[in-house]
Write a structure and sequence with these properties.
There is one protein chain. This protein has a 7-stranded mixed sheet with strand order 8-7-6-9-10-12-11, sandwiched between helices. A 5-stranded antiparallel sheet has the order 1-2-3-5-4. Helix 4 (159-170) links the parallel strand 9 (147-152) and strand 10 (171-182). The termini are far apart. The chain has helices spanning 60-66, 89-98, 111-122, 159-170, 183-186, 192-205, and strands at 4-9, 16-20, 25-30, 43-46, 49-54, 79-83, 103-108, 127-131, 147-152, 171-182, 208-215, 223-230. The protein has 232 residues and is an alpha/beta fold. It has 6 helices and 12 strands. 25% of the residues lie in helices and 33% in strands. Bound molecules: S-adenosylmethionine (SAM).
Length: 232
């Protein structure tokens, strides 16, 4: 396996680029849980710090960054409501980025994958696992505080509405939304571009200022990541 030659921070806080001997460049984050990986990713020690490789084929946020996302709304100490946490692949990197002073409220409705998510959260005190349906956000109101970032990756046809409803309850004014859109989950009969346009319009009419729409191909085909600011 090729050796690491350098690691440097990108223009996004706590998100790093790792250069290998063979010239390849990958993203990585500083491991909040040293010695442990989450989904088989490589652990890299460099200048006495342990990093985890962040696979853009496994995580849409990494794919969006590789494809030119201009700004990251995540900072040290951010509060994040994450809908569609699955087994915690992307959650774990968000947890690295916001560090121990941040919080990731990780909502997932499949009991099978929640079991794996709990294993991830056991080693990461800033991850709070919530077994719940994102369609009914009032059911987790005793567990979640106001958040700086709402991350939505639930692959549901009405996810723009679900995102907007959750934002109205939990997202701070001027907070940010990251929404992954999978065209085929919304309408298989329509062209992906038409679907993205319609979903973006829904967000705009629900108080979001859409900043960027990043096409995730080749990491995820027929997917985009939308970055928007919440005006309330
Ligand atoms: N975000 C994950 C990552 O990058 O590691 C992958 C998420 S996967 C594409 C979508 C997940 O959303 C699935 O685990 C699914 O069970 C979950 N999901 C779908 N609808 C949901 C809902 N209404 N409430 C909570 N979770 C939901």
């Amino acid at each position: 396996m090729s050796e690491v030659v350098s690691i440097y921070e990108t223009n996004m806080l706590n998100i790093f680029r790792c250069e290998f001997e063979d010239g390849t460049v990958r993203l990585c984050t500083k491991n909040l849980s040293p010695g442990h990986n989450v989904y088989g990713e490589r652990l890299i020690r460099y200048n006495k710090i342990e990093y985890r490789e962040w696979n853009a084929f496994r995580s849409k946020l990494a794919g969006a960054i590789m494809k030119g996302l201009k700004e990251s709304p995540l900072s040290v100490g951010s509060r994040v409501l994450y809908l569609g946490a699955a087994s915690g692949t992307t959650v774990s990197h968000v947890s690295d980025i916001v560090e121990a002073s941040g919080k990731v409220y990780a909502v997932e409705f499949s009991p099978r994958v929640v079991r794996e998510l709990i294993m991830v959260a056991q080693r990461r005190p800033n991850v709070i696992t919530i077994l719940a349906d994102a369609r009914f956000p009032q059911r987790f109101r005793t567990l979640v505080e106001a958040v700086d970032v709402l991350y939505v990756d639930i692959a549901q046809p009405d996810q723009a509405e679900i995102a907007s409803y959750n934002a109205s309850l939990y997202l701070k004014k001027e907070g940010h939304l990251l929404l992954a859109i999978k065209a085929r989950s919304i309408d298989v009969t329509k062209e992906p571009e038409e679907i993205y346009k319609r979903e973006v319009e829904k967000l705009s009419s629900n108080g979001f200022d859409v900043r960027q729409v990043v096409n995730l191909d080749p990491y995820d085909k027929d997917h985009v990541m939308v970055l928007a600011k919440y005006e309330g």
